[in-house]
Amino acid sequence: METTEVTGWETARLDGGPADGLRMKVSGRPRVIQVTYPCKVEAAAPDGVHAEAVYVYRRDYAVSDEPLRYGYDIASP
Fold this sequence. Notes:
Elements: E1 9-15, E2 23-27, E3 32-39, E4 51-59, E5 68-72
């Protein structure tokens, strides 16, 4: 297995989907970023139970300089 040194944090921007334009700091250039958004539940839920919508953003490998770009993956999950 090949490993690389993490040299620091880089700025990344999310394109498309519900988090369009969101900027964040990432380390190690992850291939995928998962974004969650809380959902309202209609009935009272037991303590600690909640629902969240999950959105996936995949890294655009054509962009190698900051800000790195991650595009919304409409097909997942």
